[in-house]
Specification:
Elements (H helix, E strand, L loop, with lengths): L3 H20 L13 H4 L3 H5 L19 E12 H10 L4 H16 L10 E8 L13 E8 L7 H15 L2 H18 L4 H17 L3 E8 L4 H4 L17 E8 L2 E10 L3 H13 L4 E3 L1
Parallel strand pairs: 2-4, 4-5
Antiparallel strand pairs: 1-6, 1-7, 2-3, 5-6
Helix pairs in contact: 4-5, 5-6, 5-10, 7-8
Length: 291
């Protein structure tokens, strides 16, 4: 129904309503998003759709191996200033830098026993609102798949540049509009079918792309709610459950100078967390860990 942006808008309104009831004041509600219902439910994919096609690129993809177990959540507490400084040193965005750090961690993991030497693919959701203006609170994101050749000798610097160039190419307006067109056509087909059939069709069409990713990394960026509300917020974290075919999902969200990098895993041993910890230690990046 919604993506991270829509979810945060709902959470902001929910928190403001709660505080208004508890403290008997409307000051928390004054600056809540005021978006008309028609704008909230706009199908932005349809609005920006153009005719075009892109050929899928299906190649053997590395999947993190392990014994399945209940979901476990690990959050790294990082300094926004520190991460921005590292991103600036490499001439890339925070999203590109953290994606590169994750890639280096997974590439090291591939060299351990019981793992495989296949292409690493990280799915990075793109918030289209920053490039295709809309106030919709419905889902309006597209994944781009960043592939790393296991045989290539990667450094953090080269991985940063590689991710940055990929994200720039993937966010070209023409490319995004063509992909919006593909989503719009799929939704148009589904509207003539029973809900259960339509849902199954969408799930099956997306299933192949899920199988083609090692993990997903979502960065919601900096949360900047109105000051009266932010003064009441002690902490804010976000976690996305992994897709059924993946052992891990990763997300990031920032509040003030705190950046929370959260991993959700569905295998017993924290193999990726071990490698990420080593990456931060090698870079001299301080962190707190909450499990």
């Amino acid at each position: 129904m919604a993506d991270g942006t829509g979810g945060l808008a709902f959470l902001q309104t929910l928190a403001a309503q709660y505080l208004s009831l508890v403290k008997a004041t409307d000051r928390y509600l004054v600056d809540c998003p005021k978006i008309s219902i028609s704008e909230q439910i706009e199908d932005a994919y349809q609005r920006y759709a153009v005719v075009g096609s892109q050929k899928p690129n299906f190649i053997p993809t590395f999947h993190i191996a392990g014994i399945r177990g209940p979901e476990q959540i690990t959050t790294y507490g990082l300094s926004v200033a520190t991460i921005k400084d590292w991103a600036r040193r490499n001439g890339v965005s925070v999203t590109a830098f953290l994606t590169a750090v994750l890639a280096m961690a997974v590439l090291q993991l591939q060299r351990t026993p019981k793992q495989t030497a296949k292409t690493l693919r990280i799915a990075v959701p793109i918030d289209l609102r920053k490039r295709l203006p809309t106030q919709t609170l419905k889902n309006f994101t597209l994944n781009t798949s960043v592939a790393f050749d296991y045989a290539h000798v990667w450094t953090l610097a080269s991985a940063c540049q590689y991710v940055s160039k990929h994200l720039q190419a993937a966010t070209e307006p023409k490319v995004l509009a063509q992909r919006c067109g593909a989503v719009a056509r799929l939704k148009h087909l589904g509207q003539w079918l029973p809900n259960a059939v339509s849902r199954w069709l969408v799930q099956q069409s997306l299933r192949s792309s899920w199988l083609n990713h090692t993990l997903t990394f979502s960065n919601l960026g900096q949360v900047a709610w109105p000051k009266p509300l932010m003064t009441e917020v002690e902490d804010l974290q976000m976690a996305f459950s992994p897709k059924p075919e993946s052992a891990y999902s990763c997300s990031a969200i920032s509040v003030g100078d705190q950046l929370h990098l959260t991993l959700v895993r569905t295998i017993l041993r924290p193999v990726l967390e071990e490698q990420i910890t080593k990456q931060f230690d090698q870079l001299g990046i301080s962190y707190d860990v909450l499990t």
